[in-house]
Amino acid sequence: MGHHHNHGHQHSHTDLKGRNLLISIILNIVITVSQVIGGLISGSLALLSDALHNFSDVLSLIVSYVATLLGRKKASTLKTFGYKRAEILAAFINAATLVVVAIILMIEAVERLYEPKEIASDLVIWLALVGILANGFSVLLLKKDSKDNMNMKSAYLHLLTDMMASVAVLIGGLLMKFFQIYWVDAVLTMLIGIYLIYMGYDLLKESTKVLMLFTPKSIEIKKIVESICTLEPIKNVHHVHIWQLNEEEIHLEAHIDFKEDIKLSEFDKILVDIEEHVYHKHGINHINIQPEFDKCDSKSVIVQD
Question: pLDDT (tens digit, 9 = 90+) per residue, 81-102?
Fold first, then answer.
């Protein structure tokens, strides 16, 4: 019974998302390698730890990239939804690692408070700047998609952290070098960590809600049931499930009890009304209705097993 309201522009859009992620992955690999080499030449631990951060970005970007690729795969008999949830899963994984990264950052910051590491050579400063610029470019690339896509947001936050953390270390190092001020980068890093835990927790919560099939926040089941019941031959609506497949698709399934024993062709007409109604008013784009007449089953809206 489900009808889809599909929008044609999605394909070019996912290609762009994938392309931007790929560019960011390549950039981050380049930064990582250059920082490892720079770190070995200059003997700078700061650069090596920076390289490690960038490498963790590479991993989270790859998770996001694989998810966008999977999301395009066609549905099959064994996977009737295709991989439409891959992006939600990627967001969940990246949000979890984001919180871990935040905690590691904060531990590093506390260690730096106790024994400040000065930024020694000019090489370190230049490589740090290169890292910041390249990450900044990636951040700008992903920014637009991060607004309405959890997966992209999780990748974006990983890059943003890294950029902000590098900026903090650089500022701290320069202030140490020229003004003998030793606490700035640790304090900045702590603030970044707090911001990250806040954002990461939010993403974890959002992605968990989708994975657990919770009803989306914006949807009020009571209102939907009441509005469907206003249609003429409908007696009641029960056994309702509303859940999100991914960020584009919301599914509704329900049993509808009719006042009289109507023909199937009449039911189909009513179904079109219901579909239009829930799509325009509530943004639900996939519905599945079981029509009933005088059937003995539980008539409560939410049925407990």
Answer: 888 899 999 999 999 999 998 8
Nearest to 164 by CA among 140, 184, 144, 193: 193
**For the segment 145-158, what is each residue's pLDDT rounded down to a tens digit?**
888 889 899 999 98
Estimate to the nearest angstrom the gap between the alpha carbon of 114 and the chain centroid: 36
Tell me the pTM: 0.84
Spatial contact of 273 and 231, defined as CB atoms under 8 Å apart? yes
The torsion of the CA quartet 11, 16, 17, 23, rounded to 10 degrees, works out to 150
Vertex 106 angle, CA 104 and 112, to 5°: 105
Q: Is the dihedral of CA 149, 151, 154, 160 positive or negative?
A: negative
Main-chain phi, psi angles of 301, to 5 degrees: -60, -50
